[in-house]
Design brief:
The complex is a heterodimer. Chain A is α/β, with parallel strands linked by helices. Chain A has five helices and eight strands, in the order ββββααββαβαβα. Helix content of chain B is about 35%, strand content about 15%. In chain B, strand 14 (about 370-375) and strand 15 (about 380-385) form a beta hairpin. Classes of the chains: A alpha/beta, B alpha+beta. The complex binds protoporphyrin IX containing FE and iron/sulfur cluster. Chain B: GO terms for molecular function: 4 iron, 4 sulfur cluster binding; heme binding; metal ion binding; oxidoreductase activity.
Chain lengths: ~170, ~550
């Protein structure tokens, strides 16, 4: 069990993440654990993943194409996006695409180099769950949600951009 | 000029608080150097030779007099009483103390200013023609769109961590004075056959190590689609731009790798999903932003009033200054005055706190309280009555602002170089000064006429040397400072990348090489031909032959 932030609260979470080891091999996964598997592993053998008693979810690497997951989204209990380095911003576009283009409505989780200073942006583009990086405080990370109380752009959380709200309220 | 409402104020204040917290956590060891660096860069803070360098945004070069006074105050209070105007219409402080930077930002916020995204791998300050709104050849005032882009790009949640920095420039006039073809995105205001206003969208220009002139990806984009289209371009870049090598990470490399056709098709595909979405601009939205940029109460004046004409006739030095340092205005009887920051002996673009205060006072007294920063690193008073020019000239002289060299060889665009910048191969400031000294004779300088001279201390090209008619690049040869000269570059509507003339020069030999180049020009020019035109016509060979001729 680990602590994560989900929907604005710190909660206990039992999902395990399947990552390749240094040789590119994937360790075996026990049939009864809830596991988040890489897109490639999912696409290679969906049927066996689904045949297990544990639940299976999928994580995307920054270079992955979310369209490959489009048909499965409605049935997945969770989708995650990995941020190998916080400066790699591709995951923000993936979040928006999953939410806005492919209408994914379930849990969208940010993994990897994730900490307080990134929460606001991640939340705005559609993430609602965050595994805070080891060594970074999780309790203070909650404050990251409201670093900014307004923003100019159309986002997943507030599709109507500020300029439209401004003129309507004149 | 745009004025903040409560929301704009709040966003900037919240950014200041966020940065204060980040700085404190860094100083307390809770953020590592590698974590803090991208965060501080996104707020304009470099760490340089002597101290941090703070770059403050001057959105599209627009500055109110009270803002300039605040910058003067900051220069005095937190720095060494001067600052530096940059080639992207911003201002830099070279000596602030890291722990006090949050206080500087809080002071800036009081006057609707900030350092948001003036550095780092994000969308940078949007730039435009320094004469926007007052230029005689303007098709459409670009400033409402600049402000719309500024707001869209500020803290955009999807695009905070791009592969590399991203620069947008907008031009609304016949002559492109915003270097749009060497920006990541260049937007030109155009009208289609039906008379509808839109943008020509140019993508993938840039200088640096790989100078490339941008290409048109959309020849006519109706203005209402501006933001959805920008979102589409940025999303394609964010997802597919290279991140493995920072020298290959700019959008220009992606466009070249994909070909401009394939890139345009990919953007189009992305855009079809976003088009007509909530970010589509309605007429009322544009009108809201345009309402901040309506003309001041100009007086009905006639051009060339007698007191002005007689002074022109009496005082050749004044006439000379008017010829070089003022520009015609869209309203008769007004001019825009360019205050030269290219006085010999002062690093190009440097401005003292005293000069800032003085210029702010003149903006109030002779104009409507506004100033502009030009990407050529000069300061502009946009609206001065011709009848006041003589007095403004005398005041400008008293502040060392009146060198009559705008657009001439000594109006050098120059990066800070090795005196300040830790990436430099060579110093730029002393060499620029040596050139200015060599060409100090005004008759000679005027005779040479329009010449853009650009100087960068290394291949990052902060001084845009590739697009100088004559460009200088600092290079490192076994730890020594050497200088490469390029000829034939130009900015504007016919942007061209200059060509290197040959082996580089030792520092002491640069002015002489310049002199030989100018001698060839004077010998070869046809009547009325500008330097760049002669270079284009006769090619580089005659210059090479003279510059590299062996003495016997
Ligand atoms: C002193 C601290 C500075 C540092 C460390 C610095 C660093 C850099 C670097 C690394 C690049 C290349 C980025 C790339 O091509 O992706 C660059 C580009 C640029 N810099 Fe600076 N710079 C500094 C100061 C300035 C100043 C003072 C100016 C303006 C006078 C300036 C204007 C520019 C411009 C316009 C470019 C873009 C050139 C292009 O189109 O690629 N920089 N800078
Ligand atoms: S061109 Fe090079 S030397 Fe000049 S400021 Fe840029 S990085 Fe520094």
């Amino acid at each position: 069990m680990q602590s994560i932030i989900k929907d604005g609260q710190i909660v206990q979470d039992g999902w395990q993440i399947l990552r390749a080891d240094a040789e590119g091999q994937y360790p075996a996964v026990a049939p009864d654990v809830d596991v988040i598997v890489p897109l490639s592993q999912w696409l290679a053998d969906k049927a066996s993943w689904l045949a297990r008693s544990g639940k299976t979810a999928v994580w995307l690497a920054p270079a992955d194409d979310p369209q490959l997951l489009a048909a499965d989204l409605a049935a997945l209990p969770l989708v995650a996006v990995d941020f190998p380095a916080f400066t790699d911003g591709r995951g923000y576009s993936l979040g928006r695409l999953l939410r806005e283009r492919y209408s994914y409505a379930g849990e969208l989780r940010a993994l990897g180099d994730v900490w307080v200073d990134l929460l606001h942006y991640l939340w705005q583009v559609g993430f609602n769950a965050f595994e805070i990086k080891d060594g970074k405080a999780i309790d203070t990370a909650l404050s990251g949600y409201d670093t900014f109380t307004e923003r100019y752009q159309s986002t997943h959380r507030e599709p109507v951009p500020l300029f439209r709200r401004r003129v309507t309220s004149l | 000029m745009y004025r903040y409402d409560e929301v704009d104020h709040r966003i900037v204040r919240e950014r200041v608080e966020q940065f204060r917290d980040q700085t404190q956590r860094f100083l307390a060891g809770q953020l590592s150097e590698d974590e803090f660096r991208p965060l501080r860069l996104m707020n304009g803070l470099y760490v340089q030779r002597h101290a941090p360098m703070l770059r403050v945004a001057i959105p599209y070069g627009h500055l109110a007099s009270h803002q300039l006074r605040k910058l003067a105050h900051i220069a005095r209070q937190y720095d060494k009483s001067y600052a530096h105007l940059t080639t992207r219409q911003n201002i830099q402080f070279n000596w602030p103390e890291l722990a006090r930077v949050p206080d500087i930002l809080a002071e800036l916020a009081e006057v609707e200013m900030h350092a948001i995204q003036t550095s780092g791998n994000c969308v940078r300050n949007t730039t435009t023609d320094a004469f926007a709104g007052v230029a005689q050849d303007e098709l459409l005032d670009p400033r409402a769109y600049c402000e719309i882009i500024r707001q869209w790009s500020t803290l955009h949640p999807e695009f905070a961590f791009l592969p590399r920095k991203f620069k947008i420039a907008v031009s609304g006039s016949v002559e492109d004075r915003a270097a749009t073809q060497v920006h990541d995105i260049g937007l030109h205001v155009v009208r289609n056959e039906a008379g509808e206003v839109g943008f020509k969208v140019i993508v993938g220009g840039g200088l640096g190590r790989t100078p490339i002139v941008g290409e048109v990806v959309k020849s006519f984009l109706p203005t209402r689609h501006l933001l959805t289209y920008l979102d589409a371009v940025l999303r394609v870049y964010n997802r597919f731009g290279r991140r493995d090598n920072k020298y290959k990470a700019r959008i220009k490399i992606l466009v070249k790798a994909m070909t401009v056709e394939a890139f345009a098709a990919k953007v189009e595909d992305e855009w079809l999903h976003l088009k007509d979405g909530p970010s589509t601009l309605r007429d009322v939205d544009v009108a809201h932003y345009a309402s901040f940029f309506i003309d001041p109460d100009y007086e009905q004046l006639s051009a060339n009033p007698p007191e002005f004409s007689s002074k022109l006739a009496e005082e050749p030095a004044f006439a000379r200054w008017v010829e070089r340092n003022t520009r015609l205005h869209k309203r008769a009887g007004y001019r825009s005055v360019v205050l030269s920051l290219k006085k010999t002996g002062v690093p190009p673009g440097d401005i003292s706190a005293e000069q800032m205060d003085a210029a702010a006072d003149w903006a109030d007294r002779f104009g409507y309280g506004e100033l502009r920063v030009a990407h050529e690193q000069n300061l502009i008073l946009p609206d001065v009555r011709e009848s006041d020019l003589y007095e403004v000239w005398q005041l400008a002289k008293s502040q060392g602002f009146a060198t009559p060299n705008i657009g001439l060889l000594t109006d050098i665009i120059c990066c800070p170089g090795g005196d300040f910048c830790s990436l430099a191969n060579a110093r730029s400031i002393p060499v620029a000064e040596a050139i200015q000294t060599r060409f100090e004779d005004l008759d000679y300088l005027f005779d040479l006429g329009d010449i853009d001279c650009n100087f960068s201390g290394c291949m990052n090209a902060c001084g845009h040397h590739h697009i100088g008619n004559i460009g200088i690049l600092g290079v490192d040869k076994n730890g020594e400072e050497w200088y490469q000269i390029t000829l034939g570059g130009s900015q504007g509507s016919h942007t061209t990348i200059g060509k290197v003339i040959g082996p580089s020069f030792a520092q002491a030999d640069v002015p002489l090489a310049f002199e030989k180049i100018m001698t060839v020009y004077l010998e070869q020019r046809a009547a009325g031909e500008r330097f760049i035109e002669t270079v284009r016509r006769i090619g580089l060979d005659p210059f090479k032959e003279r510059v590299y001729a062996k003495h016997h």
